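hey so u asked for the seq, here:
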Amino acid sequence: MIIHPRQALPEAAGTKSQLRKAMGFWDVLLFNIATVLGPRWIAAAGHNGTSSISLWMVAAVFFFVPGALVINELSSRFPEEGGLYVWAREAFGPFHGFVAGWTYWIYTIFYFPGLLLASASMSAYILGGRGVALADNRAFLLWVSLAMLVVAVVLNIIGLNIGKWLQNAGGVGTYLPLILLVGIAAVVWWKHGSVTHFTLRNMMPAWNWDTVNFWSQIAFAFTGLELVSAMSEEVRDPRRTLPRAVFGAGALIALMYIAGTFAVLALLPAASVDPQSGVFGAISVGSIALGVGFFGIAAALLAAAGNVGGVGTTVAGIARVPFVVGIDRYLPPAFGKIHAKWKTPWVSILVQAVLSGAILLVSQINETTRGAYQMLIDAAIILYFIPFLYMFAAVIKLARRSDRAENPHAVLVPGGVTGVWLCGGLGFLVVLLGIVVSLIPPGDSENKWGFEIELFLWTFTSILLGLALYWPRARKLFSFEGRIRRGTWWLRLLIANLVGFTAKVLIVVLVALWPRSLSVGIMLEVAVFVVVGWFLLAAQIQRWHDLNLPGVMSAISLTVVLAPIALIWLGVKEGTAGENKYGEAPSPA
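ran it, structure tokens below
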């Protein structure tokens, strides 16, 4: 039976009441800056050339401003934990709410690796000139990326009252190096002139198949203001705090994207700008020109804190979506658990981190660092923009509801229903265009067909997995709650092994027939491993529950000596008769 969110409200209210209201105005403002503003987007804009400047302006007017107005209206009308998921659910019902929430969460599995790779590349400049070579060294990027992920995850599990300081440091650490970049570029430009010639003509958008893929990144760079809305019930006075912080952060972010791109191109020609760490390459060049090399190291140190903070904001915000979806019982209920001591959705955070780490590893196989980074970014954009389609459509759908006019706390889109249609329609069209151009490989991609196939497989498999989990029987199969009999246990064990073996054979055949598909094959193998492993773990926990033992007993299966004994015990031992502390007796297989 599917439980409608309205039926789950008492339980949801009881669970969410444990959350701490830890964030004030400045916390939210810096959270927004750390989430949205990214030196990597300025670097990508510099690599794209002078036409990026007009693209920033177009995106600000036709996407960023309408998006901020829509977010302010929806977050003030529905200041509930879950953000985009809640808005889509209110407008279109539980299924569409789930699709929006699932794609919004699963996108981070791809976004984190891309963010971490760029952040690790920037951090190499802490070492000064010696760090330039490390900025493209795979081993260095991988280990630093994993370390950043661990720090962000641990601090956010410990608690938002602790984790928010990481986010605050992220906001400050992101903005200050960019102010330094603009200052250095201004002095160098004044003393020596700009290496790039700026004209009105060359700053206009240019249609170029080699760079059109970047257009979606411009829109993506302006997203993130909605993220803190997913934590509304952890913000003090959210109806007042969220809109003020959105407007304040929005102005600072738009200004810095434009000024930062001018600064990078004043110091470096577009062709030599690294699309991940180009900001710090420009700072290093400017610092050397001024004879103050220390500026480059100082900027890299600040940016390292900013990058970890950016990961922290995404971990903190996105984890609240599956947390609320878990409470509504559209994901396994474990996602709706709050840590008894730290009052955080720790299961959601951990699952997110493990999957992101796995994809980070897989993305580095049989692909250039640039190609891996670009594929992850494009997969993230496509998945992330799906809930934005819902958001812009939702504000239009909800515009005629009576509570819009009757809500004294709502910060409404100006212009009445006409204004809502204008903002919602513009945002919807820009997002749709962003999805389309993300499907076009970048001009310097070595294997365009391989890029397309891998991108399609990542995104299609991610969405398909979510739709499968929405099915009530599938949720039961992947749930860590309830009980199963020994017959069911053996059946699930057989199915898992058959699926795993069949997938392995098909992947081997695929790679043998098409050697270039090695990275695709490994990606599919990881996906199968995650799904089958989760399926088996859930079955094992449910079987221990049938024996009236805790699911943590599954840990003995990880030991070489005890694993066979556990297998025999689970497959032979009869479960407890009648109800036990883990639930009612299951029906026989």
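The two ends are 20 Å apart (CA to CA). Residues 1-10 have pLDDT under 50 and may be disordered.
lmk if thats what u needed
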